[in-house]
Amino acid sequence: MAWRYFLSREVPSELEGLQELAQDLRWTWSPQADRIWRRVDSQLWNATRNPWLILEVISQKRLEELAGDPEFRQELSRQLEERKQYLERPTWFDLRYPSPETCGPVAYFSMEFGLAEALPIYSGGLGILAGDLLKAGSDLGVPIVGVGLLYQQGYFRQSIAPDGHQVEYFPFNDPALLPIVPLRDQDGQWIKVAVELPGRTLHLRAWKAVVGRVELYLLDSNDPLNTPADRTITGVLYGGGPELRLQQEMVLGIGGWRLVESLGIRCSVCHLNEGHAALAAIERAHSFLDEEGVSFWEALWATRGGNLFTTHTPVPAGFDQYDPALLERMLGSYVENELKIPFEDFLRLGRLWGRRDEPFNMAYLALRVCSATNAVSRLHQEVSRRLFAPLFPRWPKWELPIEVVTNGVHVPSWEHPEADAFWNRFCSEERWREPTEVLVEQVRKASDEELWELRNRCRCALITVARKRAYRACACRGAAPEELQQCQCLFDPNTLTLGLARRFTAYKRPTLLLHDPERLVRLINHPTRPVQLVVAGKAHPLDSTGRDLVRQWVLFSERPDVRGKVLFLEDYDMELAAEIVCGVDLWVNTPRRPWEACGTSGMKILAHGGLNVSELDGWWAEAYSPEVGWAIGDSGEHGDDPGWDAQEAEQLYTLLEKEIIPTFYERDHRGIPVRWVQKMRESMSRLTPYFSANRMVRDYVDGYYTTLSQRYARRAAKGGRIARELFQWERELQSHWKGIHFGPLETETVEGEYRFTLPVYLDEISPDWVEVELYAEPLPETSAPVIVRMSRGQKLVGSINGFLYHASVPANRPSSDFTPRVRPFHPEACVPSEVTPILWYR
Ligand SMILES: *Cc1c(COP(=O)(O)O)cnc(C)c1O
C-alpha cells in the first residue's frame, strides 16, 4: 500500500498498482507514460504532467469508470509489467560489480534536484544535472540515494508584460500534490530528524520521491513544532541572506546525513554536489566518532576516504562564504560539544590564512573533507586547479588533486518520441541502460534520408508547440483576433531554425546575436536562405542586467520586420527546454570563457540531430571538432571586455553568413543538404553517447565510487585502526616536517643517463613515511610532468635518520630540469589531497 499525505483516496482494487505508477518519476522518461495518463485525464495530464496530482484530484467516479474499462486495465497491467521488468532485470551495475563489497551505497547530496516540472525544487543547470544523475543511476542500477530539500516555494515562473518586462510569480509547492510521500518507518510513523540551532531544536520532516530504482529523500522545516521563522528555513531555494543559506546547508548536510543513517542505510560513499553540502561530511565524521569513540580528526580520516566533492564553480565569487562570527553562532556548540574540537580548529578547515576576518569558504571545506574532488569538464578542471591552487602551496599545477568527470544529460528524459523512434531503428531499446560506446557505430549507419527526415519531423514538432505557446501567451495578454490568427502560422517548417535558451545573466551573453540587430534582421529575412529563431530564458529577479537582456529579446521579437520569425517563449523550464531542444537545427551558446563550467543544454539537442555553434567553453571546448559543429572564440580568456564581445559577435555573424546558413541550404537532387546531414551524423554518433549521463555515471562508479567505497572500508575497519594510524602519521609529519633538509645533490652522466645522488635528513620522520622524488616539468607537447622515485640507499654515517637517495633518468634533456623533492607517503593516504606539505631541493 502506498502511503499518502491525506489518506483519503481509495483506488478501486481493479486499479491496483496505479498509485505506485503515479508516484514513480520514471514517467518523466518512460515512453509509455503518455499512453496511460492521457487516458486518465488528458486535460490535467497536458497541463501538469503530474500523474500524482491527477490521482489526487480526479473524482471517485472517474476512477470507477477506469476500473470498469477493460482496455484501460490492460494498459495498466502492461505498464506495471514493464515497470516490474525495469526494476527487477539485472542491471549494468549488477553485472559489473557482482560482489557487494566493491561498492557500497552512495548518498548524493544536492541543494537542488531537477527531475520534473511536477517537483519544482531546482533553479537551473546544477539541479538538472543532479536529477539526470539520479535517473541514469536508476537505469544503470547504481546503489545511490539522493538527499535534498523540499522547498515550500518553487523557483519563480516567468511571464512577459506587454512592455517586454519579465514578471515573476512564486508558486506554492503544495506537498499533497507533489509526487512525494512522507517517509515513514515500518510502524507508519513519520520519520523526522532534528538539528540543533542556537537555543532550540529544529525539527525536520522527511519525504520520499521515487525515481525508478532510486529514492530521493527531501527534508523540510515546515513542522508545526518549529518557530514560525524556522518553519521557513526551507521556504525558498537560494532565498534570503547568509544566515538562512547557512541554515539550509545545515539542514541539507547535518540533517541529511542523520536522515540517511536513521533509515539504516550504511553509506560508504558520500558525494557532495557542490560545496553547499559539505556539512554532510562533517556530520558523517561526527557519527563515526560517536560510534567508534575516536577523536574527530581520526573520524575524519576514516570517513574522508569515502567522500567525493564535485565542484561546479568557475569563479571564486561562486563559492559560498560565511562570516566566521555567523558560523560560530550557528555551529559553535555543535563543534565544541559534539565534535569536541576547538572552534578555531574547525574554522581552519574552511580558510586559507586564518586571519581573524577571513571568511569561511564552503568549497575549501568540501575539498578538505573529501579524499577526491572533480571538476565537470576538462577546461573546468584547469580552471578549478587555478582556483584551488592556494590550498596546495608549492605543488605544481599538474599534480593538484582535482580530477574531471564531464557532465552528461539523461537522454531518455530529453529525447522526443521522434528521436526515440529513430534511435530504436539502429540501436537496442535498452541502449541507455547499458554501456553506450557501441552506439557510435550503430547510429552512424543512418542514411541521409533518415537523418534529414528526423530533422524535419523534430523541427515541425517544435513549431507546433511554439504556435500553441505563442497563442496562449497572446491570448492572456488580450491580443486582437488578427494577432491571435498570426500565432497559428508562426514560423516556417522548412526554414533553418536557431535556438537559444539559458539563464539570462551577463556572462552567458544571451544577446550576443543582437549586437548588430540590422545584420540579424538581414539574416532572418534573406530571400532564399532565411533563418528563424526561438529564444527563452529567465533572469534572476534581482539581476537587473539580466532582466534587461530579456527585454531586449522580447522587444526585438516584436519588430514588425521579424514578426512571425523570432519568438521569445516565456517561462523557460524543463518542459519548454525539452520542446526547444527537440526542434532546433542549430543551438547557439555564447558564454564568456571560462565562465561556463560545463553547460548541458547543448547536449540535449544531440540526440535530435541538432548541431551546436558555441563558444569554446565548458563541454564544447572538449567536444568540438570541425566535423561535428562550429565554434567561436579563440580559446583565450578576455574577461568582460566589450571590444572582445563585439569581435565575437562579428565572428558569429560571419560564420552564419558564410558557412552555416549556406551549408543548410545547399541541397542535392533529393533536396537533402548533404554536408549538413554529414555533420549531423558525426555529431549524433560521436557526441550523444559520450555526453550522456549514462557515461557520466559509469565514470563516477568506475573511477570514484568503487575506489572510495573500498578506501573507506579499509580505513574504518577494526574501529578505524588505519584511520588512527593515518592521524598519527599526519601529526608526525606536522611536527617534524620543518626539520627535513638536504645535503648537496650530485649528478653524473654515465652511458646516456643522469645518475643523481642526494643525502636527505628526515628529522624524526620514519623514511617509510615519505617519498623522495625527482621532478621535471612536462616537455613541450606533453601534459604530464616527469616524476621519478628516488630509491633509499645507505644510512648516512653519524646522522639521525639521514639517507642517501639515488635515481637514474635518461639524459634526453638538461639535468638541471630535474629537481629533487620530499613528499609525504602512506599507502592509504591521498597526497596532496589529504596532506599538503612538500619540500623542494631548491
Ligand atoms: C538544461 C537546462 C539548464 C542548463 O542549461 P545550461 O545553459 O547549459 O547551463 C537550465 N535550465 C533548464 C530548464 C534546463 O533544461
UniProtKB/TrEMBL annotation:
InterPro entries: Agluc_phsphrylas, Glyco_trans_35, Glycogen/Maltodextrin_Phosph, Glycogen_phosphorylase_DUF3417. Coiled coil: none annotated. It comes from the Bacteria. One of its GO terms (biological process) is carbohydrate metabolic process. It catalyses: [(1->4)-alpha-D-glucosyl](n) + phosphate = [(1->4)-alpha-D-glucosyl](n-1) + alpha-D-glucose 1-phosphate. GO terms for molecular function: glycogen phosphorylase activity; pyridoxal phosphate binding. Its EC number is 2.4.1.1. The modification N6-(pyridoxal phosphate)lysine is found at residue 604. The keyword Cytoplasm does not apply. SUPFAM superfamilies: UDP-Glycosyltransferase/glycogen phosphorylase. Belongs to the glycogen phosphorylase family. This is Glycogen phosphorylase. The lineage of its organism: Bacteria, Pseudomonadati, Verrucomicrobiota, Methylacidiphilae, Methylacidiphilales.
